[in-house]
Write a structure and sequence with these properties.
This is RNA-directed DNA polymerase. This protein is of the alpha/beta class. The protein is built from 16 helices and 16 strands. The strands form six sheets. It has a four-stranded mixed beta sheet, with helices on both faces. A three-stranded mixed beta sheet has the order 2-4-3. Strands 7-12-11 form a three-stranded antiparallel beta sheet, covered by helices on one side.
């Protein structure tokens, strides 16, 4: 700039360019004055603005590229900083906005049909996560104690047997080889009739969950994932349908998932609904960053929040975000509240669906969601969702003895 080489930090999260008074004095022309500052400038995570003595427009050059940049001049010796617009204009960084998708032309449809026919075994039946097995570990010395096993009500027995046959065909459950095995844990079975009339078999594993070791998982932050994706040229989405059942249980864990009906004794071979560690093993089912970013860019409220984080102008319609503005940051078009992703309104139901699959009740579902995502009113929505879930309410009921 003006014949001088200035070392600067590249900050694609900044909407302003900053130089110190020392740097300005080195390149200042005789009689040149700074313009009065228009906007306030805040350091990341701070609520008190920096003291800006003025602004100046200077032509900056990097390589063969030049551009006019407006710099905010600080009164202290802060490091010089180049914001996102200048970085992109000078080709210091490149932002790839386009994502190429397979168009549904006649040619591509034919190609897809050929692929699904040639590799039919891949596209039919239940998928499986390769080279991975979930293990249910128990707290040392803990015993599950006696459990009351209820008989299946007559009006759903046929549906339960039909579902057992289906799951055995898919390899999700198997007959217990030795029902007298002392290591076998027999759990109450809760058949849940879904809206479409089908039946889901869930274990009422309240007692088992009290002695299961809970894994301490460190999930990657959005910043880490975005950095890892910086050199990617292609991306695809994974439809993790029936996510729990795509993860195999190791052999020792299967005996912990046994249940009995009038037709026999069975155990699960795949991860199941009702086990407290299930959600931790299904972390890959999280929404893709691309999906969250696109939903954020079409969410009018979140767009106003993004603008407010840049110019610190918080309007009444985003008061709920204004209260926590010191915790907010925008990374790659996604809003973070500290390390948690702020979910756009149209994806919130989907997030609740993912977190709710384990049917763990209000406390555990809240803990799971709160550790990863946030939006205004999230607690009330979780409570409403759990209150409407028959299985969650059944799991929470106190067991009663069967009549003689």
């Amino acid at each position: 700039m003006r014949g001088q080489t200035i070392e600067m930090y590249v900050d694609t999260g900044s909407s302003v360019n900053v130089i110190s008074m020392d740097i300005w004095n080195c390149m200042r022309r005789q009689g040149e004055q700074l313009k009065s500052p228009i906007n306030q400038v805040f350091a990341y995570g701070q609520t008190t603005p920096l003291k800006i003595v003025g602004e100046i427009e200077i032509t900056a050059r990097y390589g063969k590229k030049t551009t006019k940049c407006t710099f905010s001049v600080t009164d202290k010796h802060y490091p010089s900083l180049l914001g996102d617009e200048a970085c992109e204009t000078l080709d210091i960084v490149k932002f790839h906005q386009g994502v190429y998708q397979l168009s549904s032309t006649q040619t591509t449809r034919k190609s897809i049909e050929q692929l699904t026919t040639e590799y039919e075994s891949i596209f039919t039946g239940l998928g499986k996560l390769n080279d991975y097995q979930a293990k249910i570990e128990l707290i040392e010395g803990a015993k599950i104690g006696h459990q009351i096993i209820r008989r299946i009500p007559h009006h759903v027995r046929q549906k339960v047997e039909t579902e057992i046959e289906r799951l055995m065909t898919m390899g999700v459950i198997e007959a217990v080889p030795d029902p007298t095995d002392p290591n076998l844990v027999l759990n109450p079975l809760r058949p849940v009739v879904k809206k479409d009339g089908s039946t889901r078999l869930c274990l009422a594993a309240m007692k088992l969950n009290t002695i299961v070791k809970k894994p301490k998982c460190l999930f990657p932050l959005v910043d880490d994932m975005i950095n890892e994706m910086s050199d990617f040229h292609r991306a695809s989405e994974l439809d993790f349908n029936e996510a729990f059942q795509q993860i195999k249980l190791d052999m020792d864990s299967r005996n912990l998932t046994a249940f009995a009906t009038e037709s026999g004794t069975y155990r699960f071979t795949r991860l199941i609904y009702g086990i407290s560690i299930a959600a931790e093993h299904v972390a890959p089912k999280s929404l893709s960053l691309k999906t969250i970013r696109e939903a954020t860019q079409s969410d009018e409220t979140l767009l106003r929040v993004i603008a407010a984080t840049a110019n610190n102008r918080w309007t009444k319609d985003i008061t709920q975000y204004d209260k926590i503005k010191a915790e907010l940051a925008v990374v790659g078009g996604i809003i973070l509240r500290e390390s948690r992703i702020v979910i756009p309104s149209r994806l919130r139901k989907q997030v609740l669906d993912i977190a709710h699959e384990g049917h763990q009740g209000i406390v555990k579902t809240k803990a799971l969601i709160r550790s990863k995502v946030w939006w205004p009113g999230i607690d009330a929505q979780i409570e409403e969702r759990i209150a409407d879930c028959i299985q969650c309410q059944t799991q929470a009921q106190t067991e009663r003895s069967q009549p003689l």
